[in-house]
Amino acid sequence: MTGYIVKRLLQLIPVLIGVSIVVFLMIYLIPGDAAEVIAGPTATAEEITNIRIKLGLDQPAYVQYFRYMSGVVRGDLGYSFQTGQAVSEAIATRYVNTFGLALFSALIAVIIGVTAGIISAVKQNSWFDHICMSISILGISAPTFWIGLLLIIIFCVELKILPISGLSGQLWTWDGMKHMILPAITLGFNSSAMIARMTRSSVLEIIHQDYIMTARAKGLSEFIVIMKHAFKNALIPIITVIGIDFGSLLGGAVVVESVFAINGIGRLMVQSINARDFPMVQGTVLVVATTFVLINLMVDIIYAAIDPRISYK
Amino acid sequence: MPLSTQGYRISEAKMMTETGEITIRTDEKYRRKSPFVDLWKHLKRNKLAVTGLAIVTVFIIVAIFAPVLAPYDPYKQDLTIRLLPPGSPGHLLGTDEYGRDMLSRLIYGARLSLLVGFSSVGFGLAFGVILGLLAGYYSTLDSIIMRIVDILLAFPGVLLALAIVSALGPGIANVIIAVGVWSIPTISRVVRGTVLYIKEMDYIAAAKALGETDFMILFKEILPNCVSSIVVYATMRLATAILSAATLSFLGLGAQPPAAEWGAMASTGRNYIFQAPYLTLLPGFAIILVVFGFNSLGDGLRDALDPNLKNAL
Q1: In sequence order, which residues have a C-beta less than 8 Å from that of residue B49 and are 6 or more positions away?
Q2: Element (H, E) at A264
Q3: How far apart are CA B100 and CA B108, in angstroms?
Q4: Do B154 and A18 touch (CB under 8 A)?
C-alpha cells in the first residue's frame, strides 16, 4: 500500500509540472501583443512597457517560466493588476468558501442521490421511481446556472424562505449555512442525479441475486436485507461515481459562485477574466487544477484501501 | 415475390448451365444490408433514442429554417411592448426587456447553439482522432500523448475552456476553439482505446504481411472500424459542448449581447428575475431539451452500434 501511494505521488509530479506549463502558456494564447491587449486600448506606451516588464514578457519564455515557477514554489503567484493585492493572499481568503461549498454540495448530493437511488431500486417501476429517474435526467441535461436560477425563483422570489445570494459572514455559522443551502443544492444537483442512477442500477443488480433471497428466507426484515446485504455490496460503483464527481464540483463552483455571488475562487476567476487581470487568472486556474489533481489522488488511494480487488501494482 | 418461412423476401435469378436452366434463390436474410438499415433497426426499438433523434431533428430543422419559422426579427426592438408575458397576443412566448420576441430569439438561438456544438466537436474530433490513432498505434508516442492528455484532464469541468477563452478573449469563435480544445483529450482517449483493441486483430497482421504502409493501415484499416465509437462519443460530446458554450456565454465570455444565444439570454434575463422569470426559464428549457436529445440519442447509438462501450462511456 505504501509503495502504491509513493508511486501515485511520483506520477503526480509530471502532471503538476504540465499543469503549470499550460497555465504559464496561457499568456501566449493572447492574440497580438499580450502587453498591449492587457493594458487596454487607452493605455500609453509607457504603461504598456511597464506591463511588459512586470509580466517578464521582455525575457525569453523559458526564463519567464522558471521565474514564475520559482515564485509559485515559494507561494508567490504575483500581484493583481487591478488591485495590487498579492494573488496568493486573494486566493487564500476565498479558498475556504469554495472548498466548503464543494464539500457541502458533495454531502447533499450523496444524501439525496443514495436515498433516492435505493428507494427507486426497491420500488422499481413505481411512481416514485419514475419521478426520481425523470428528475435525474433533468439533472444531467440542465445547465448548472439554470438550476441555480430556478431555485432562486422558487425559494427566494416565490416562497421567500431563503436568502437570494451572497455569503457575507462565516461559512460555518447558521447564517452562513442558510446562504449556502441553495448554492450547494445547485452544485450538487448534477452529481446527485448521477449518484441516484448509479445507486439504483447497482442495487437492482444485487437484489436479484440468490443470497438476497436467502436473507429474506431467513426472515430478516426488508430494511436489514436492503441496507446490510444489498447496499453494502452495491457500494463500490457508487463510491466510484462520488469520487469522480467530487473533483469536478470544483469546476462547477465557478458557475455557482457567479450565480449566487459567493466570494470564492470561481467568482474571483470570472471577475479577473473579465478585467483581463492575468496574474489573478493564472493563479486561480493553477490552484483549482492542483486541488482537483490532489483530490483525485486521495480518492484513488481511498479506493485502494476500501476495495481489496483494486490492484496496487 | 416469394417469401421464406421466416418471412424474408427471396429474390430469384435464372442461370443457364450445362445441365439446363437452374434458378438461384437468395434469402434476403443473408444479403448484405446497408449499415444504416441495421442501425435504424436497432435504434427504433429504443424509445428513448427515437425521442432523442426526433428532438435533435426538430432542432436541426428549426436552426436551418430559422428565418422562415421565426415570426419576428429576433433583434428588432420595440420598447412599447417590453416584458410581455408568455401567451400575449402576437407573442406566444412573450417579449424581453427591449420588446424583442422571445420565440424568435429562441428559434435563432438554436442556430447558434448547434453551430457552436457541431463546430467545436468537429474541431475536437479533427485533433483528437489523429492523436488517438497515433497513441494507440505507436507505443513510442503513446506515453507522450497520454501524458499530455492527463495534463489537459487535470482541469476540472469547464476550467480549461474558461482558461483558453480568458486568453483568446470573449466571442463565439473563441468559445468554439476553447470547447473544441477541451474535447481533444477525452476524444483521443476513446479512439486510443479502440485502436489498442483493433490493432491486435488478425486482419491488421494480414495487412502488414501484405506490405501496407502504416498510413494505409491507420486510415484504411483501423479508422473505419473506430467510426462507431467515434460517432457514439461525438453525439454525447455535442450535448456537453452545447451545455458548456451556454455556460461560457452565461458568464459573459461567449456570445455577447444582443446575440440571440440561450446562455446569454438567461444571463440578461437574470436582471428581471422578479418581474419576468420566463426570460431566464425559457432559454433553459431549450438547452435542456436539446441536451437531453443528444444524450438520449448518444445512449441509443451506443447500445445499437457498440454494446461493449457501455462500460467505457
Answers
A1: B43, B296, B297, B299, B300, B301, B303, B304
A2: none
A3: 12
A4: yes
Average pLDDT score over residue span B21-31 = 64
C-beta separation of A226 from A144 below 8 A: no
CA distance to A107, B61, B66, B260, per residue, from B71 (Å): 47, 16, 9, 14
Question: Cα(B239)–Cα(B139) distance, rounded to whole angstroms?
Answer: 32
Residue B311 pLDDT greater than 60, yes or no:
no
Instruction: Read off the pLDDT band of B44 (50, 70, 90).
Output: confident
Longest dimension (CA), chain B: 91
The C-alpha cell at A109 is: 448530493
For residue B117, what pLDDT is reported? 94
pLDDT value for B313: 47
C-alpha–C-alpha distance, residues B264 and B259, integer Å: 7
Paired with A108 in beta bridges are: none
Residues 132-161 of A with CB under 8 A from B: 137-138, 140-146, 149-150, 152-153, 157
A272 contacts A90 by C-beta, under 8 angstroms:
no
**Amino acid occupying residue A269:** M
How far separated are the first and last CA of chain B, in Å rounded?
A: 44
pTM of the model: 0.85
- Mean pLDDT score, B238-259: 91
Report angle CA A270, A275, A278 to the nearest 5 degrees. 80
Model confidence at A147, in pLDDT bands (50, 70, 90)? very high
Cα–Cα distance list, B260 to A34, B74, B102, B105 (Å): 30, 7, 9, 5
- Which chain B residues have any C-beta within 8 angstroms of a chain A C-beta? 147-148, 150-152, 154-159, 162-169, 239, 243, 246-247, 250-253, 263, 266-267, 270, 273-274, 277, 280-281, 283-284, 287-288, 291-292, 295
DSSP letter for each residue of B187-216: HHHHHHHHHHHHTTSHHHHHHHHTT--HHH
Mean local confidence (pLDDT), A96-106:
89
The vertex-A159 CA angle with A155 and A161, nearest 5°, equals: 65
| Chain A hits for B152, Cβ within 8 Å | 22
* pLDDT of residue A188 exceeding 70: yes
Partners of residue B101 on adjacent β-strands: B95
Q: Identity (one letter) of the amino acid at A306?
A: I
Residue bearing the bigger pLDDT, B7 or A171: A171
pLDDT > 60? residue B265:
yes
Spatial separation of the C-alpha atoms in residues B80 and B87, rounded to whole Å: 17
Mutation to test the B interface, candidates A15, A17, A25, A29, most B Cβ within 10 Å: A29
